[in-house]
Amino acid sequence: MEFKGKHVLVLEGYCKQCLPFLRGFKQAGCEVSVLCSSRLDCSYVSRFPDHRILGVCDPHKPSESEAYIVSLIKQGHYDLVFPPFDFSARILSRHKEELSAYALLYANDEVVFRKANDKEEVMKTCQEHDIPCPRTYFSMENLAFPLVLKPRDQYGARGFHVCRSREELIRYIEEKHIERDQYVMQEYIPEGSCVAGSVQMIDREGVIKSSYLYRCEHVFPENGGTSTLNALLKRDDIRSECDRLVRLMGLRGIVGVDLMIDGRTGEGKVIEINPRPVHGIALGFFAGMDHARQVLEDAFGEEVTAMEPKRWDISSRILQTDVLWFLTSRNRFRLSPRKLGYKVKEQMFFWDDPLPWLAFLLEGLRDFRRKMKEKKQ
Fold it and tell me: 39 in a domain, yes or no?
């Protein structure tokens, strides 16, 4: 109970990655509050928060949410504010200097966050330092097709489009009224390639205390969705390049790098950086790494414990969305967890905290059409 008495505010209680941190903060002795926007948020029904705040925290209401979060931090008595996703991490980075008088904000400085969240800046850094990444075009000259057009600072696989000719690219830009400098044009990595990711924990001194890769075995929708089954991956060549990249970007805290393992060459190519925890971090907790403790140690000035996976034979699954993957995938039997050789851990279900699983299901059913529409966009 080393951190007894420390009051931690966790934002975006609808995020899946909140759950292991709520548990970890509570087990470390903290008083835990979580900001939710609905009683169906998985964190709202979890047994671990001491305080559940129903407020405004919704990416579809950016200005209202930002004002609410700033006011909440100023009026509350929090020792640490933890953002689990891009939306709240962006807000804390933007207001870090102002709000640091009220609480420790576990977020990168705004200039670092903006650069890491900008896909074009990440690609420039990769190319300048020979870190594998898709070929990226910074002008309309010498384009090779097919290519992918996607927003520079969007997240969640939204807004990308595959263009198979210059005519299609120009037509799409005109029809969607796209401002060219707000988008990135990249090499299209073909089918047969694999989505993967990394997690890095970088302490306040810039030392990497945890670093590991995971492979997204199931993705729904398969043409550009979210992983539903993740498994640890041993590829030190790829991991070391991800370590090098996050150092070059000046990042701190827990971050993730999205990758594609090119089916033609086996090379791991950086797609983007997530300057906050990714939902695949649940796999790290299952593998024996207490990232919540690392966050507390880092935030409160203690030596951060170095951690690495203690077991490699497990996968983390989100059953609700994995069922959708199974129903729609042509690879449903070839890529089953049993055939892949993994022991499955359910990311959303625990016998001592079962309600988040049910809430996630109900909220998913309620918002299914909206979320699928966003994916198509």
Answer: yes
SS (H, E, C) 179-232: CHHHEEEEECCCCCCEEEEEEEEECCCCCEEEEEEEEEEEEECCCCCEEEEEEE
Q: Quick one: 164 and 229 in the same domain? A: no
52-81: burial string, b at 16+ Cβ within 10 Å, e else? bbebbbebeeeeebbebbbebbeebebbbb
Q: How many structural domains compose the chain? A: 3
Q: Confirm whether pTM is higher than 0.90.
A: yes
Tens digits of residue pLDDT in 188-241: 998 889 999 999 999 999 999 999 999 999 999 887 788 999 999 999 999 999
User: What is the CB neighbour count within 10 angstroms for residue 216?
Assistant: 22
- What is the C-alpha to C-alpha distance for residues 361 and 63, in angstroms, rounded to an integer? 28
CATH number of the domain bearing residue 214 = 3.30.470.20
Structure tokens at 106: 């576990």
301: left (phi over 0), alpha (psi -120 to 50) or beta: left
Kindly indicate the confidence band of residue 89, based on its pLDDT and cuts at 50, 70 and 90: very high
Spatial separation of the C-alpha atoms in residues 252 and 204, rounded to whole Å: 6
- Contact present, 112 and 136 (Cβ < 8 Å): no
Q: Where are the beta strands (DSSP E) in 29-180?
A: 31-36, 51-54, 80-82, 104-105, 136-137, 147-151, 161-163
Residue 280's nearest CA partner among 215, 365, 332 is 215
Using the CB atoms, write b or e for 93-104: b if 16+ within 10 Å.
Answer: bbbeeebeebbb
CB-CB contact of 201 with 253 (8 Å): yes
Tokens of 43: 């964190």
> The domain that contains 162 carries what CATH number?
3.30.1490
Q: How many CA atoms lie within 13 Å of 182's alpha carbon, on the beta-carbon side?
A: 7
Domain that holds residue 226: 194-346
| Residue 360 forms part of a structural domain | no
Are 230 and 214 in contact by the 8 Å Cβ rule? The answer is: yes
Spatial distance between the Cα atoms of 178 and 160, rounded to a whole number of angstroms: 12
Are 27 and 68 contained in the same domain? Answer: yes
Question: Is 179 found in the same domain as 248?
Answer: no
